[in-house]
Fold this sequence. Notes:
24 strands; 7 helices; 416 residues; alpha/beta
Amino acid sequence: xxxxxxxxxxxxxxxxxxxxxxxxxxxxxxxxxxxxxxxxxxxxxxxxxxxxxxxxxxxxxxxxxxxxxxxxxxxxxxxxxxxxxxxxxxxxxxxxxxxxxxxxxxxxxxxxxxxxxxxxxxxxxxxxxxxxxxxxxxxxxxxxxxxxxxxxxxxxxxxxxxxxxxxxxxxxxxxxxxxxxxxxxxxxxxxxxxxxxxxxxxxxxxxxxxxxxxxxxxxxxxxxxxxxxxxxxxxxxxxxxxxxxxxxxxxxxxxxxxxxxxxxxxxxxxxxxxxxxxxxxxxxxxxxxxxxxxxxxxxxxxxxxxxxxxxxxxxxxxxxxxxxxxxxxxxxxxxxxxxxxxxxxxxxxxxxxxxxxxxxxxxxxxxxxxxxxxxxxxxxxxxxxxxxxxxxxxxxxxxxxxxxxxxxxxxxxxxx
Length: 416
């Protein structure tokens, strides 16, 4: 009996457990998944919790109910990977042997990386919404907040779901309008990037929306420190921005276990072949989702597309064949723009977000890079798709792992 070990039972790890439990012979392979947590969170829902669109209890379920029966769930913290011995050490001292390892340990916020971010003001006047506790605490804060300077801020890239801070700013605009207090709130979007997003074509559209909603943008702000008492953030170039309420996306880092194992980069992400998803650390180690260092968005849709490619490549690896599955960096993300509307963007490593229709060429019903109410309802419907199809490894009709070009106004990819 051979052992396939999956580290992490979040979105990517659970999808791989479901995919491979249907593909690997039961008599030949034991599949084990390790995670210390008991709860599985629908992370796209964190965005909606502060604005009371979702209740906290609507975005959490038990990890156990999504793990296939033939897969052994080990609920322990992971201490480290001993790659040369093909072993994983757990927090309780137990050692797990493996023949094949999948790292799906994700990424988490690291507010301690920025001077002054943690302290008495953390979760009082400085909040995140990238964690369940952060989103829930911010929801309580916004219920009684009487207005002032709200700063929505990104510390550094890469971050999980890079459109989420923009969505937060747009939803905040709608939220305060609906409360009849928009004139009491000065909204500012502070980013280390040149503009609103990582892709120039989408940045143009999103910068326009920020301007239209009277949300000031401060670009190229590389934060040095937070002064919680003075309620200011400073960057290395001498800029400073005042706030009454700071909603920040702290530095995102991979699991500390990656550092203890000596296999990660400076942010604890694992060097990974961007096409095959095989690690550059050792041939029998594969990586998926936010744990990789591939130049794709750290988003649930990316992990979903990667899972289909990785399943194909793991089966090829076991059979001793060439890894032919090639991930193209496909990402597909709804962008809430407020007032019951949303954009949809679809892109990959080479192709910028473009206009067109999705998923059916010429039909849609979703419009790319255009605001619409249908896109908004598509975003809300994704919660059902996530719980019932995506995480259980079921194919989503008309949506392919590689970016389709039909029905899209594709632009030539620059050479070189």
